[in-house]
Amino acid sequence: MTLNSFGELVAQLDVEHTRPEPPALRQPRGPNTCVLDILHRGMSDSYVPFSRKVEGEWQELGCVPAHQLRGLFRDEAIADAVQTDGYFGLHGMYRAGNYRTNNTLPQLLPSARSVDSVRYLTCCHVDLDAYNHGLSRNLAYGAVMDLVDAGIVPPPSVFLLSRGVWALWHLHDKLNPHEPPRTYPDSVMRRFTKLQKALHVACSAIGSDAMALHAATMTRIPGSVNSKNGRRVAYMTPSDIHNKQFSYTLEDLEGFLRPHVVIEHAPPRGAGLEPPKNSRLSRRALKGWHGRWHRLNSVLSQLRDMRNGWKVGTRNAAIHYVALTLRALRADSQKALQTFSQHLEGMTQPAGDKLTMTTCLRVMRGTKKPYAGGPCHQTIADALAVTPQEAALLSANRKKPFPHATCHGVAVDVLPTLTKRDAAARRLAAVREVCSKLAAAGLSPTGTEVRAHLAAIGIHPALATVLADMRKVGLPSRQTHRQKPTEATRRLFPR
To answer: Which of 88, 141, 306, 371 has the fewest Cβ atoms surrounding its Cβ within 10 A?
Structure first.
């Protein structure tokens, strides 16, 4: 065997090792936990939320510790509850009081499902509504494998097949291959969001749903019945020639999807970054005035990347809002030059009317610093003609969604705001309900635990407010404060 033929053989074996074998289609006769075990891996500090749809309305069923998933559907009550239109959370959640896991099924723990509650990122995922493009689920699966053969996306680890197709890419931690990556630090979630955006763009031609990219997404339980077509959800788990499941780190997916994903690097030392004098006050400042403009800065950068540069018709408005953001953040000349050069790069401009760096600096000098909050997001969306798909990607990993332009349909409905009295009454009723349930279970709740339970249902009060409400309902916290002594106690025990 010559050296050239040996090298060709090694290259062929390497290609065959990464080529997925045709997986077998598995369609359970009832709700099955096989895919749930593959994703959540029995983590002791992770919780899996469950929900169902009844006549088009969501019902939260609760959450289950990941290490108790195996054998969950042997309980008839839970199996019947998720038999039709049953859903489970793709990612592991954090729930308050996670050390109290000595529970017995079928009574589930209170549900915890929000982007802020995500603890483990088990996979990257896209929801392919291929039926909107005239494709069956088999053709959608074939279209994904065509993208794999073309080298556009890596081989998926799991396929869930219902009316459409879910493609999941199994994630594992770089240092702990048997565990999914944690969401700490914050850069992990930003990298995950960029990967989701890149996979969505790659699969957009076959019906990728932009509304199913966030980390609190739920999908159908394998073996449950889809009421829209009356068929049970099937799944497939592709593997290589060694029958090994495909699994990736965040670095693997970033390297494969390059240059669509911009990898964040740590800033070099001595780059003029001085530590804040008071870190607590600096973090607090980012939540208000500065936080709003920092978010607008990231929205403009992300929108520019999604469009591969600003186009004619929106470039002047984009430069105006970039200058306004730089003015609000009090950026120096070096920062302004760097930001404008990034926005001018890749901009489609006519030959006789080009925007230059001189023009951008002139716009910035003529822009005054905003003092009354600046323009609202709806005004910015209308000026930049933000589409609903772009707005969905800009709203990923955000509590408050970014709206789309009114020219693309009805604007985002503004939720009615409660008065302070109604909000306080709603919060007090929720505190009374949480404290009563915990007390009935023989537990003495603390303010931190009650606050976490309130956050799970969308109420985010301060800790001092929770403690005051617990005193009003007659169940004060046992740790964070003491009861005030009565007048009789002061007479008996004078200081």
So the answer is: 371
**Residues 115 and 237 occupy one common structural domain:** yes
- pLDDT-based confidence at residue 449 (cuts at 50, 70, 90): confident
In angstroms, the CA 161 to CA 234 distance is 5
Which tens digit of pLDDT belongs to each residue from 233-256?
999 999 877 788 899 999 999 888
Residue with structure tokens 């995500």?
A: 118
Looking at the fold, whether 302 and 234 belong to one and the same domain comes out as: no
Out of 121-125, 146-150, 320-324, give the one with best mean pLDDT. Answer: 121-125
Residue 423 and residue 404 share a domain: no
Q: Are residues 346 and 375 in the same domain?
A: yes
Residues 144 and 189 grouped into a single domain:
yes
Q: How far is CA 18 from CA 244, 343, 365, 459, in A?
A: 10, 38, 55, 47
pLDDT confidence of residue 179: 93
pTM: 0.56
- Convert the pLDDT of each residue in 341-362 to its tens digit: 888 877 777 777 888 888 888 8
CB-based contacts of 314, cutoff 8 Å, min separation 6? 383, 384, 385
Report for 32-46, 57-71, 459-473, 476-490: range of highest mean pLDDT: 32-46
Within-domain flag for 275: no
Whether 384 is covered by a domain: the verdict is: yes
Domains held by the chain: number: 3
Residue 326: which domain range?
283-408
